[in-house]
Amino acid sequence: MKNTCVNCGISIPFYERGFLAIQGETELNIGNLSFSGEKTGIFTYHFNFKEFKELLEMLEELENAISEGEWNAGVSARRQNIRMIPFADLKKRMDKRDEVEFIQNGKLVSYFQPIIELKNEELFGYESLLRSGDQEKEISPGSLFQTADETGLHSFLDQRARETAIRCRKDHLQRGIKSFINFLPSTIYNPEFCLQHTFSYVEKYDVDPADLVFEVVETEQIKDVAHLKKVFDVYRREGMKVALDDVGAGFSTLEMLSKLKPDYVKIDRSYIQNCDHNKANQSFLKDVTRISRELGINVLAEGIERKEELQYCKSLGVELGQGYYIGKPLSEPKVPVMV
């Protein structure tokens, strides 16, 4: 399924030579520019560039010339049917060409960090973590998502990340092992439409929906609870599970648990650190495990780095655990052996 929803981020090719089109809300005096152009419609202008460097120079000058109103822009090898996006997004994409080209077409893979059942310390599943699959381009996931956010490609990259996680799961994991896959609720404007891409990947790679858990990523703040509930409902309707990540840090109150009723709740690592002797952390963990148990939600402690932390969480009845003590993210899934 091709990416046809404007809200999912439009992929823009790069051209060494071609045409730049801009369209705004006011008149542009092209006679004041250092390069020539042509007015081709109401507040619409075309410019010809013969090398990519020239395009960058045009955009730099135009940025100062069109400071008022909203402007869209696009580039193409031909003057007809140029696909337009906000001018600021186009300029940033051209300025960060290498990173943007990688986001649009680069090789992506998933690393696997194990998740275990604490009661028996047996494998439960893996969190899928996005990584560059190009050994010559070691770009960090944080850098990729930052560039995507700055260039209007956040939804596009989030969609690619979900496909990558599902594809890599097909290649490496057997049925019955859960995959925890991050998603950005802010990129899913209409869950009935936007999630069709994800569901098509599940069908394409013949993955059992029951093995997939989609979790709100750690950097997201819940701003629209009703919208997120709709997203959760659509995932669940398709036979998948949902999780809240970073509870205690990214969310203002535990009341979110009762409002959203996720299948899993992942406790922020700051509350797991030194939980075997930190009284404040212990108090929070007791509250969240009690509330989750009452609501039928499974609790996952992430960021476990010491045996004592694992044992304390286990003593509280926390169902699942994840962290470097259990296993680091690896390109090939490894079954942890606890000592």
Explain what the structure shows:
GO terms for molecular function: cyclic-guanylate-specific phosphodiesterase activity. InterPro entries: Cyclic-di-GMP_PDE-like (IPR050706), EAL_dom (IPR001633), EAL_sf (IPR035919). This is EAL domain-containing protein. It comes from Rossellomorea vietnamensis. The chain has 339 residues and is of the alpha/beta class. It folds into 2 domains: 82 residues; 221 residues, Alpha-Beta Barrel (TIM Barrel). It contains 12 helices and 13 strands. The strands form 2 sheets. The chain has an 8-stranded mixed beta barrel, surrounded by 4 helices. Strand 10, helix 9 and strand 11 form a beta-alpha-beta unit. Helix 5 packs parallel to helix 7. It is elongated, with a radius of gyration of 24 Å. The N terminus is likely disordered.
Which helices and strands, and how do they pair?
Blueprint: E1 18-23, E2 38-41, E3 44-49, H1 52-65, E4 72-76, E5 85-86, H2 87-95, H3 97-105, E6 108-117, E7 122-132, H4 141-150, H5 154-172, E8 178-183, H6 191-194, H7 196-204, E9 212-216, H8 225-237, E10 241-247, H9 255-260, E11 264-267, H10 269-272, H11 279-295, E12 298-302, H12 307-316, E13 320-322
Parallel strand pairs: 7-8, 8-9, 9-10, 10-11, 11-12, 12-13
Antiparallel strand pairs: 1-3, 1-4, 2-3, 4-5, 6-7, 6-13
Helix pairs in contact: 1-2, 4-5, 5-7
